[in-house]
Design brief:
alpha+beta, seven-stranded antiparallel sheet, 15 helices
Length: 401
């Protein structure tokens, strides 16, 4: 890797034409670190724009099979970059024997951080998220790609450009009955497959598996399925698990890594808890299908999922279809910014969303009721830091940032 030792003036860390600024102590400014590598915010010195640069982990770079898959997937992901709900991949390169790729920088907030800061989404906005991700899945299918790490942290709520009157700076408020849903973009797209060749070695040596267990499909965590190809139905399951988090503030199964993986393989999804939170029955029924244990029992393609989501949307009351009366969290999602909020301490005695097995490190959940909680009520009752990566809940090294 390029020299990261601090210099007197702390010059930027360079990867070709891309410059990564350093902190006051000389360390490169990271956005995150995970099983796939290290992510930085960088500056494109030729095109004068902010970008996101990810340096791929050495155990992938130095494995010929994994590296070949990474390069193939990165090129395919770049071909999908014009899609409005898929992050654009601008460039790939090698620096001192390490591979990296460069993505567009998105001004916004990932949905994990959004829920941590503001509480769960309303059903209409969670449905809007699902609709946009399903459109991204359809584009992925065209290029025969599987993401393999769908989770709240890999979904970005991107700030929309707000129109102004007469070229001035005063925003024009959208009519309440036509409030635009949040724009969501799928990031780290199509690149997790590069780690597939490392699965056996990685998990046996204590490194992160190429997925995040909290949102992984049964076929990803089932050792009997090791070595078999995954398809879009695996991503559909992970999207279902992600929607549970967006609607209720927690993943469907929690505990140790083994307990979570066992839950994905054997336990029913927590649909009764979603009903108790006021999620409409058609949406709950679709989530149950998305979270089916057998891939053949889920929507079979992105097109099928889009059609089923449209049926759910049509079944909602008119005001919910149009986004009227959205929760405080959903309103904030439309104009989200790069905000990080500290979570309050857990409240003892809160009800359990998905009862874990004995000995698990359970996190308490919001109380279940017949109506959706207000944001203030949820803040009082919710747990501490909400789970997204395996490290958050399982105490083990988790998915990519």
């Amino acid at each position: 890797m390029p020299d990261e030792s601090p210099a007197t003036t702390h010059p930027p860390l360079r990867f070709g034409r891309y410059e990564v600024p350093r902190d006051a102590d000389g360390r490169p400014q990271m956005l995150g670190r995970g099983g796939m590598g290290v992510t930085y915010r960088a500056w494109d010195s030729e095109l004068h724009r902010d970008v996101v640069l990810k340096v791929i982990a050495s155990d992938i770079t130095h494995n010929p099979v994994a590296r070949k898959r990474f390069l193939r997937e990165a090129k395919a992901a770049a071909r999908c970059g014009g899609h409005p709900h898929i992050v654009s991949v601008f460039d790939i390169g090698v620096q001192d024997g390490e591979d990296y790729y460069v993505m567009e920088f998105l001004a916004g907030e990932n949905l994990s951080d959004h829920v941590r800061a503001r509480g769960p989404l309303s059903s209409p906005d969670a449905l809007a998220v699902a609709e946009q991700v399903a459109e991204a899945f359809e584009e992925m299918e065209r290029h025969e790609l599987v993401h393999r790490d769908i989770k709240p942290m890999n979904l970005m709520a991107v700030r929309r450009e707000t129109p102004t009157r007469g070229g001035g700076s005063t925003p024009v408020p959208a009519p309440p009955a036509r409030r635009r849903p949040p724009k969501v973009v799928l990031i780290d797209f199509g690149l997790a497959k590069a780690a597939d060749a490392q699965t056996t070695e990685v998990t046996s040596t204590g490194h992160a598996a190429p997925y995040t267990a909290l949102y992984a499909s049964p076929e990803q965590v089932d050792p009997d399925h090791a070595g078999r190809e995954l398809d879009i139905r695996s991503d559909i399951y992970s999207l279902g698990a992600t929607l549970c988090f967006l609607l209720a503030g927690r993943a469907p199964f929690e505990g140790t890594r083994k307990q979570v993986e066992w839950g994905h393989m054997t336990k029913p999804p927590p649909v009764d808890a979603l009903r108790a939170l006021g999620v409409p029955e058609p949406f709950v029924a679709l989530l149950a299908r998305m979270l089916a244990k057998r891939p053949e029992d889920r929507p079979q393609s992105a097109h099928d999922l889009i059609e089923e989501l449209a049926a759910v949307r049509a079944a909602l009351p008119t005001e919910q279809r149009l986004g009227v009366g959205a929760s405080d969290s959903s309103v904030a999602l439309e104009a989200t910014t790069d905000i990080r909020a500290a979570a309050p301490p857990p409240i003892p005695g809160a009800a359990t969303f998905a009862p874990p097995a004995a000995g698990s490190r359970a996190i308490t959940d919001l109380p279940l009721g017949s109506v959706r909680l207000s944001l203030a009520e949820w803040r009082r009752a919710r747990p501490g830091p909400l789970p997204d990566t395996d490290q958050d809940v399982l105490g083990t090294k988790g998915g990519s940032p």
